[in-house]
Amino acid sequence: MTDIQADIDVLPGLDPHAPLLEVTDLHVEFRTQYGVAHAVNGANFRLGPQETLAILGESGCGKSVTAQAIMGILDTPPGFVTKGEVRYRGIDLLTLPENQRRKVRANRIAMIFQDALSALNPVYTVGFQLSELFRVHRGMSRQDSKRRAIDLLEQVRIPAARSRIGDYPHQFSGGMRQRVMIAMALALDPEILIADEPTTALDVTVQAQIMGLLADLQQQRHMGLILITHDMGVVADVADRISVMYAGKVVEEAPVYDIYARPAHPYTKALLESIPRLDMKGQELSVIRGLPPALTNIPAGCAFNPRCRYAQDVCRHDPPPPPYAVAPSRTARCHFFREVLADE
Amino acid sequence: MSDVVLETRGLVKHFPITQGIVFKTRVGAVRAVDGVDIQLRRGETLGVVGESGCGKSTLAKLLVGLEKPTAGSIVVRGQDMPKLRGGQLRRARRNIQMVLQDPYTSLNPRMTVGDIIGEPFEIHPEVTPRKGRARAVQELLDTVGLNPDHINRYPHQFSGGQRQRIGIARALALKPEIIVCDEPVSALDVSIQAQVINLLEGLQNEFGLSYIFIAHDLSVVRHISDRVAVMYLGKIVETGNDTEIYERPTHPYTQALLSAVPVPDPKLRGRRDQIVLEGDVPSPADPPSGCRFRTRCWKAETICAEQEPPLEIRPRSAHPSACHFAEVREVLGTA
What we know:
The complex is a heterodimer.
Chain A: H1 4-8, E1 21-32, E2 35-47, E3 52-56, H2 63-71, E4 79-88, E5 91-92, H3 98-104, E6 109-112, H4 116-119, H5 126-138, H6 142-155, H7 161-164, H8 174-186, E7 192-196, H9 204-221, E8 224-229, H10 232-238, E9 241-246, E10 249-255, H11 256-261, H12 266-274, H13 313-317, E11 324-327, E12 330-332, H14 337-342
Parallel strand pairs in A: 3-8, 3-9, 6-7, 7-8
Antiparallel strand pairs in A: 1-2, 1-4, 4-5, 9-10, 10-12, 11-12
Helix pairs in contact in A: 5-6, 6-8, 8-9
Chain B: E1 4-19, E2 25-41, E3 45-49, H1 56-64, E4 71-76, E5 79-80, H2 86-93, E6 96-99, H3 113-123, H4 133-143, H5 160-172, E7 178-182, H6 190-207, E8 210-215, H7 218-224, E9 227-232, E10 235-241, H8 242-247, H9 252-260, H10 302-306, E11 312-314, E12 317-321
Parallel strand pairs in B: 3-8, 3-9, 6-7, 7-8
Antiparallel strand pairs in B: 1-2, 1-4, 4-5, 9-10, 11-12
């Protein structure tokens, strides 16, 4: 077996001083029999080592598709990346041939999914699935790889790891399964971890355990973490920066403190106002009227204009607003960001 | 109190665990609901919270009569629901309706919206005469904020939030006094969730409805509820009005649950008093002796394994709490 670890360092174009991950103007579309669905329409963001970037948005805003495009696990067809760059340390992953891209996956960029029960293979034991990574990617022997698998399960704090290695995924509880998946993602020491709704299917007490575990592991390993979620509470607890997505675009990007204190995009503002908060018993919840747009038929101009209370003619007729610089390292795609910022 | 519309006493539901194919022998029971007493007053919302597997949904099914209780009573308008049969049961059921969690699977895809909302009238023909039914359905659509002209559309032509409105219209059709909402907004996006919560609150004011609101999202429950009951492994461990539960919780489980909810405010990061529970919920087929929470509790002592703490007002808890060491602990921090 070839030693993949040796080749990985000779990836052509790898520049250790380039940004860890940089996504520029990413476009993804799905060609279906009902028309072309524009799932991602120009996503931009950047991730540094040990940084946590949260991608926040409602269902259908393109956040999971963005992650799949970065990982190179998009269903093609019907999904196609039509434009843009995903640069890992200077290498454009989208133009990389599949055999080299495979070395990046799991070795450099790993991903965990929402539903651990369907992400793990039900007919193999957890130990087999974990040690498979070492056997295939590192060419280790069965014994060595099994030892590594036990180590990993201990690192994600699974009690009695040695005896649980022979169990099948259905024998674990929801929280424990999510730990197994985290172990699997971390097996090959990736520099970037993408977590797609890692705690959505879990109860709050277990969610707190898992988020705590992820934070500790990130600290130890200096990983960059992309957290994809719709839960604004989880984001407030862990993120450094936030990208808010709507209809396939990043409509606002900002450091976490700024965005919660004073949102600059009307969509972010409306989202923040529509969540019931535990520490505040509000009156009537404010509501975002209407529905998110169908991705086959995104409104002209700013995609949010039909639901926006700041919308004027320019929002409906002019080309979509560019990412205006609201402050240093903070952007918002809204013509009226000054008004939004000024509003209480 | 005279305006109690629903009351349960010692409500129990055990699901048998059997072994063998030809000769089934009972080897145990899953104690899904194990002695629950609740009271619901007119125009009030009682929130029920707890983690998955604590018996919330079984409780909902018992209340609307979809499951028969193993023991205990459910009294609605002076009648003990589990004892009713035939026509009496059918009439009594009119009064208590349910909104289900998943608006994608709880509506029949082959029925039009008009048929779905009108079906309760078929089963209870005495409520609305046949002639007036189409009209009644249109009024219901209007009440829940849907276009009355869409009566002939099918569920797939509606979005998630709109479908949940259809489910709510169906529950309203028989003009019930009580609606049991089992996780009505957990399948919806935040912006849509707010619309449905506002609708439920509006309907409550308009028709004087009483809600049992079951959810795992504590923020949503706080927003909508007047009183809250916290469930753990088939039992209610603490109950009180919303400020008592959220600002002065006395049961360790409530405290842990509240502290685990992320607050959407980064300024509170690291300043909250977070209690992270170890381990998972024990199996309801074999619950721990004494207090069921003791296996995950940081206050547990020998008495907890020996004596089951009753749900009652205690020296350090002004509202009922089922903990030997009940004591107020503020967990939400600076609000």
